[in-house]
Amino acid sequence: MQREVPLFITFITGILLIIAFFVPPVSKLEETFLDWYSIVAGITLILGLDSLIIHHLRKIQWKKEGWVHSLALILSLNLTLLWGFWSWWKSGSPFAPSASFLLYFYTYVFIPLQATMFALLAFFIASAAFRAFRARSLEATLLLISATIVMLGRTPIGHKIHPFIPVLSDWVMNFPQLAAKRGIFLGIALGGIAFSLRVILGMERSYLR
């Protein structure tokens, strides 16, 4: 019974969403489902936050590797949450001008940390590109040539080398790249439809674990 009820709810909800999307007279039902989705997403966010806190509290309790970072996360989370509620109660909004500490924390702590994360990702992307662009096969050679043309065409030095390079770069982006991207998007769409049907029909039950 613990599995049959979720499967039945999933089946009915999926069928009703399909009907609401393709049948105009019941299109208002889709708006109702979107409201329900927002409610469920909010509850899921609370459950995820609870799981995150419990996980890091256990790391702190047992002094596992990296527990100091878990302590910093818990302290930052509680400090930001409490200050946000206090600013909301005092000023009516956590982002009001009087909530200077919260804005200071967001501007001078969160944003620099976010920028650092993206800066580190740039090195990983460069490393992956270096490994992918090794001309060890015909496909890798074509990828290397195309990437070189596109990068040169997007910079001023490409136009100085030859005026035709930006034109060739636009052609690569508008035709071969766009054709490949559309093929990928079509594959993703078909895969999403197939997976959704498996979930609706009860063939895919991984979400019950």
Q: Helical residue percent?
A: over 70%
Total number of β-strand segments? Answer: 0
If helices are DSSP runs of H or I spanning 4 or more residues, what is the number of helices?
8
Our estimate of the beta-strand percent is: under 5%
Q: What would the average pLDDT be, to the nearest integer?
A: 85
Radius of gyration: 26 Å
The parts where pLDDT drops under 50 for at least 5 residues are: none
Sheet with the most strands? none
Structural class: mainly alpha
The ordered H/E elements are HHHHHHHH
Measured distance between first and last alpha carbons: 14 Å
Shape: extended
Q: Which keywords apply here?
A:
209 residues; mainly alpha
Secondary-structure topology with pairs:
Blueprint: H1 4-22, H2 28-61, H3 67-91, H4 100-132, H5 138-153, H6 156-161, H7 164-174, H8 176-200
Helix pairs in contact: 1-2, 2-3, 5-7, 7-8
